[in-house]
Amino acid sequence: MALTACGTRAEEGGGGTTGGGEETKTAVIGVVAPLSGPLAPLGLGIRNSVQLAVDQANESGAIPGWTLEVQPEDDQGQPDPGRNAATSLSSDADVVGVVGPLNSSVGQAIQPVFDSASIVQVSPANTGTALTQGADPANPERPYETYFRTCTTDAIQGPFAARYLYETAKVTKVATVHDKKAYGQGLVEAFSAEFESLGGEIVAAETINPDDTNFSAVISAVGDADPEALYYGGEYPQSGPLSQQMKAAGLDIPLMGGDGMYDPTYIELAGEESEGDLATSVGAPAEELESAQAFLDAYEAAGFAEPYAAYGPYSYDAAQAVIEALKVSLPQAETAEDARQATVEAMAGVSFEGATGPVAFDEFGDNTTRVLTAYKVEGGEWVADQTDEFED
Q1: CATH number at residue 103
Q2: What is the pLDDT of residues 158-213, one digit of tens each?
Q3: What is the percent of the chain with per-residue pLDDT over 70, rounded to a whole number?
Q4: What is the mean pLDDT of residues 2-19?
Q5: For the chain, what is the domain count?
Q6: Which of 19, 40, 97, 217 has its CA 20 to 30 A from that of 114?
Q7: Rg (CA), the chain
């Protein structure tokens, strides 16, 4: 079934009709993601994947009497623009759910905005553990009942990476660097705790600023510690140049990071010397999942200008989760705004087979599936090296 990307609210206005010409009510699913700036390749894949899910829902008449629309908002990968985007969406009475954001630091900024408006929020990419379990890992407490996510968390991803390096790659000495943001810092903390518990040694622990471009000082400090690998917490706009600069300086060890690094742009920025670098990302490779084939085929048929990127399938499933909840809440509501709290309550019971596999949420709003993949740069491309379901 060929679909076209033609359903954004900015383009269409509002309202709609059924196939029989009857007027339908309008409900809007917002998208908060970086649609401009260095992280735009990931954000545009999120937006397009949500659009695909909404187009399919409207095509099939998934919610009789209602037409769904998408309202994308650009957070530029930064908390302040994200907060502005969330405020804009929450003040729109037709908005009944939101997919996003990409960055955990943006997630922290916008959670209270959507919670105060009783708007359900499902992130396909936030991995910061505190977003669902609070600041004290020893005493987890859910901060916001409106927040859910389809991806796994850094409490899983960090230890998964540590086990891969120590047990599979046989690395025993690691240096760490993070960008001081919520995602990067949390990822490094989770990695370090697991790596040391396995018997590994963290020989250096350094930080950079999110807008740094010259990493000579941190490279020198890391090199003096003589690590066998460097584990980085952050995203590809910094980790790519960091890898390139450290190899040029003679520190020829693999750089490993999390899902914020897993994008072709990392390899472009790091250059040929990125060969052998590593990253983990949520889930199994989409092209290897039978459950994802329908999504992959439909995305290609829709003719989007941008690839679905690392979070496309998870964004599609996030939108599908919102739609499943709306099937419960909207038929009982006069307006979209009336359905907001009922949508939040319905989300807790959502369970379906998604593009990424089974989708359901635990008591914290986290996805119950905990599959991750370790990727390695080989021949100028990310190649899946190991996929496993993480077990405590």
Answers
A1: 3.40.50.2300
A2: 999 999 999 999 999 999 999 999 999 999 999 999 999 999 999 999 999 999 99
A3: 94
A4: 48
A5: 2
A6: 40
A7: 21
| Residue 324, in any domain of the structure | yes
Together in a domain, 222 and 333? no
Strands 173-178 and 120-123: unpaired
Residues spanned by the domain of 237 = 155-282+372-389
Amino acid making up residue 320: Q
Burial of 110: CB neighbours in 10 Å, binned 0-12, 13-18, 19+: buried
- pLDDT at position 391: 86
Claim to verify: residue 33 and residue 181 sit in the same structural domain: no
The predicted structure's pLDDT at residue 3: 39
What's the per-residue H, E or C state across the chain?
CCCCCCCEHHHHCCCEECCCCCEEEEEEEEEEECCCCCCHHHHHHHHHHHHHHHHHHHHHCCCCCEEEEEEEEECCCCHHHHHHHHHHHHCCCCEEEEECCCCHHHHHHHHHHHHHCCCEEEECCCCCCHHHHCCCCCCCCCCCCCEEECCCCHHHHHHHHHHHHHHHCCCCEEEEEECCCHHHHHHHHHHHHHHHHHCCEEEEEEECCCCCCCCHHHHHHHHHCCCCEEEEECCHHHHHHHHHHHHHCCCCCCEEECCCCCCHHHHHHHCHHHCCCEEEEECCCHHHCHHHHHHHHHHHHHCCCCCCCCCHHHHHHHHHHHHHHHHHHHHHCCCCHHHHHHHHHHHCCCEEEECCEEEEECCCCCECCCEEEEEEEECCEEEEEEEEECCC
Which of 178, 187, 177 is closest to 125 using CA atoms?
187
Mean pLDDT of the chain: 94
Residue 83 corresponds to which tokens in the numbers above?
């907060």
pLDDT tens column, 39-57 = 999 999 999 999 999 999 9
Q: Taking the model in full, what pTM does it have?
A: 0.90
- Same domain for 173 and 96? no
| Whether 99 and 163 share a structural domain | no
